[in-house]
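User: Please fill in residues for this 90-position structure.
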């Protein structure tokens, strides 16, 4: 005997049981729609801040391009990851 289809009854109505693939596909489509909506909502809320953040990044880039000057007052130098690498090499 081979099972061909499965059915379930809900409130007196007979429904065919969907395949696992169909269930997962439907849930993933809904999840992607919900995530897209959430990201759009966050983007709308933070849109005014985006221009200010872009200006801050431009200012930081200009400061980083200036040789021998650092915003922290410690002078120029390599990033922390390079310093750690040099210590390990010695």
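Assistant: Residues filled in for all 90 positions:
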């Amino acid at each position: 005997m081979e099972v061909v289809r499965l059915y379930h009854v809900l409130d007196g109505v007979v429904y065919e049981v969907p395949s696992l693939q169909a269930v997962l596909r439907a849930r993933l489509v809904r999840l992607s729609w919900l995530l897209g909506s959430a990201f759009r909502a966050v983007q709308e809320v933070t849109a005014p801040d985006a221009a200010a953040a872009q200006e801050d990044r431009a200012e930081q880039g200009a400061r980083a391009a200036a040789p021998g000057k650092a915003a922290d007052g410690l002078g120029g130098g390599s990033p922390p990851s390079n310093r750690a690498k040099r210590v390990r090499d010695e």
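For context: The beta strands are 7-10, 13-16.
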